[in-house]
Amino acid sequence: MRIEEDCIGKLAIDEDVLYGIHTTRALTNFPISTERTDPLLFKSLIIIKKAAAQVNAAAGTLDVRKSRAIVAACNSLLMGEHQDALVAPAIQGSAGTSVNMNVNEVVANLASAELKTIRVHPNDDVNQSQSTNDTYPTAGKMAALQALPPLKQALTFLIKTLDAKAHEFADVVKVGRTQLQDAVPTTYGHSFHAYASLFRRDLARLTRAAADLQAVNLGGTAIGTGLNASPYYRSHIIRQVNQLIDLQLKPAEDFIDATQNCDVLVAFSGAMKGLATDLSKVANDLRLLSSGPQAGLNELHLPAKQGWFIDYARKGQILSFQKSLIKLPFR
């Protein structure tokens, strides 16, 4: 065991862990759930730490030897090493401080181990010119931007597939219904074209919301004024992050506004929730239209898929429960 101390007091830390006292406190302070922080969020924070070390060294505010050691530590983490040290829980308090300090402490200990005779401090060195209030929201936006391309690719494929079905079924007449009551004739071509139009709108909404995520407050530090960050750092940090990962980040028009308001993230969340709702609605439609085959509508024939079953015996009866299609869009 090793003893570390912060403003609260001393704490014994396991000798073989790379994180420190702040992370250890977080693990006991927030035992709310077992959900881990998303790896993309950790990755984005590590990229920010690497860029900050490079810019701070160029600004003359960080020892070059420490900068190189920090960069080397970040590189090892980005290559997938020491992932067991990134343990800060996803559900926490204090605006992401626990996750930020988890990264700071791990990077600092790795860098110190490389330098041997020079200690790298998690706050003074790794977190230099930064605050959780600008690194954490920037990392969150970076993580969302990295996760989005596969989703957009899948959504584009879905739209093309629905368009193809609309063409294939253009002349297949069906009953149009309102509140499940027979209304007027229509075609399955119209139905599938409507689905495609719905998801085209979702794709456009996601694209617009993602563009707003590219404006970040990195360099604004605690409240957006840039206190304790050098002018050189403030003017170069976002550019350096873009050198490390091409997300086309740009400085927010108003750093104080970007630091204290989350409307951009709310809008992106809303676009994602809208997509999930629309996927659920279409899945429900298809499930209903394929119901049967004897006592349901049985208008559509969906490809056979292996279901998930839980079988158990109770009073001589065998009961089976199959996950409904409604849950699939949210997986």
Brief description of this entry?
With 331 residues, the chain is mainly α.
CATH topology description of the largest domain: Fumarase C, Chain A, domain 2
Radius of gyration using CA atoms only = 26 Å
Q: Sheet bearing the most strands, described?
A: 2 strands, antiparallel
- Order of strands across the biggest sheet? 1-2
Q: What CATH architecture of the largest domain would you give?
A: Up-down Bundle
Structural class given helices, strands, pairing? mainly alpha
Gross morphology: elongated
DSSP summary: helix tally: 10
Q: What number of structural domains do the residues give?
A: 2
Q: What value does the average pLDDT take? A: 91
In total, the number of strands is 8
Q: Superfamily at the CATH H level of the largest domain?
A: Fumarase/aspartase (Central domain)
Strand content: 5-15%
Work out the helicity level.
Answer: 40-55%
Give the topology string: H per helix, E per strand: EEHHHHHHEEHEHEHHEE
Distance between the termini: 41 Å
Q: Low-confidence segments, ≥5 residues, pLDDT <50? A: 308-331
GO molecular function, one term: aspartate ammonia-lyase activity
EC number: 4.3.1.1
Organism: Lacticaseibacillus paracasei subsp. paracasei Lpp126
Domain Fumarate lyase N-terminal: 10-307
